Amino acid sequence: MRPCLALALLLASAAAAQTEATNYPAARFTDAGRKAKLLAAAADIDAAFEKYAKAQNIPGMVWGLVIDGELAHVRSTGVRDLTAKDAVTAETVFRIASMTKSFTALAILKLRDAGKLSLEDPVSRFIPEFAKMALPTSDAGPVRIRHLLTHGAGFPEDNPWGDQQLGATDADLAAWLKKGIPFSTAPGSAYEYSNYGFGLLGRIVTKASGTDYRKYVEKEILAPLGMSSSSLEYTAIPAARRATGYRRKPDGAFEEEKPLPHGAFGSMGGLLTSATDLARYVAFHLSAWPARDEADHGPVARASVREMNQLWRPSALTAARGKAQFSGYGYGLRISSDCRFAHIVGHGGGLPGFGSYMAWLPEFGVGMFAMANKTYSGPSGPINESWDLLLPTGALRPRELPVSPLLSSMRDSIVKVWRNADMRELHRVAAMNLFLDVPEAQRSNELAQARTEAGACSSIGDVRPENWLRGVFDMTCEKGPVRVNFTLTPTQPPALQYLSFRRRNPDEPAITAAPTSGLNGSFCRE
To answer: What is the C-alpha to C-alpha distance for residues 16 and 434, in angstroms, rounded to an integer?
Structure first.
């Protein structure tokens, strides 16, 4: 091939790729002052955590606010050790217990992406004892890796027992597996939280990678994220930096909890980390949003991180103070929706001596975490309260999705149809179903009636995209505003499959660039 022709083809290919990419623009934040506005709530957030620490008699606690990939605010209270009386700092290392599960899930996904395993693999592929294990019913399918990730394996809830198993040896686990596992439900049929299941995932990481679980996570997950103060083995952290775990006795005195070593169950709850490191981890999860074209530097692919941040197994629908919350489990993460936000990701951690919690709002670019050195003192309450404190700043808003060229072009065609009653233009952009759903004569009559009722339209509003192929916009007309909704087809090129014109109700808000919350701007009301 001649060089000039090759170059021309290369440039044409690059131009085509660029054109295709611009059809799918990434959502973005448009308020340049959003960080400063959010930080205006910092003092109130600190007060909420201080109040919680005092009410719960917590010896020491640290909390942080992550905004757009950085630790924007961090504060602490109390001491890391009641004898040394050293103040807790952002570098104090706490054990985060079950928050470790998401690190294990990342390791599994990294191995999946490398072709080392499939989430649909039976656990018996890596743990042969499962091939001989009796299932609870004759029609039960095999326990799969996906079941372990989502607490759907059918194992019984085991928090009291599991919390004491961090130091269990591989020999202990082998002996338990040889005797079998009793089931509380059939595999794949229900949600039930299982530390045992995540202990097994640690063994699968070891088998699939050919590397010890601890070494694999520390090399492949922690090191690339710059989490240099984090480890699965407490003795690897200098004593002067470790928070000492305590429990409170009935007489009010504190008693030190003996730290548990890393063992076969470390994958369910053994990680120790600092506020500085945990902020990097929360920022990494948030960095998976939005889906976009820029280079992906890992350590786990953004698409896989978004996958684990989705709800895969429902667990509960609850209501408190007249407000509902729906929750379930992703991969090593809890996923919920409430009256404020459609997508909340988080996880708590509780072990003898420690309590912790982390949560983030993927579409809002904001996350929070807190760690404390008192048994089961997980500070989810003040984190939840902090969302309410951030909302009034006006800056806790989701990213705005730019209007794709596809939607913009279709809006122009729709306006032409409206202004000129142009059925030829509608035929040009219509999908094959449009005139089957509403015959042309009926559609023409409805359009004429709508134009008469609206009168002349003086301005056309911008499209608010619901996604890359569906949008809505307003037209300002002399007899009242008209709202236009339209949807494009899953064909190339996308065609118009749905179109409606209707008078906007007087109490209906005008189209804005982006909804005010994760639930399209509608907050729950008492």
So the answer is: 30
β-partners of residue 473 are: 484
The length of the chain is: 526
Contact in structure between 366 and 31 (CB atoms under 8 Å): no
Confirm if 397 and 364 have CB atoms less than 8 A apart. yes
| Distance between CA atoms of residues 157 and 218, nearest Å | 28
Reported as type and span, the H/E element at residue 55 is helix 42-55
The predicted model scores a pTM of 0.92
Ordered domains of the chain (ranges, CATH): 34-393 (3.40.710.10), 405-503 (3.10.450)
Q: What is the dihedral of CA 313, 315, 319, 324, to 10 degrees?
A: 0
Report the percentage of the chain scoring pLDDT > 70: 93
Cα separations (Å) of 190 from 160, 187, 512?
20, 8, 41
Q: What tokens does 207 get? A: 């088998």
Bridge partners of 419? none
Task: Round to whole Å and give the CA distance between 138 and 114.
Answer: 34
Where do we find the tokens 């996308």? 494
CA distances in angstroms from 81 to 53, 96, 147, 272, listed in the order given = 15, 17, 39, 16
Residue 249, phi then psi, degrees to nearest 5: -80, 165
Per residue in 380-438, pLDDT (tens digit) is 999 999 999 999 999 999 999 999 999 999 999 999 999 999 999 999 999 999 999 99
Q: CA 202 to CA 213: how far, in whole Å?
A: 6
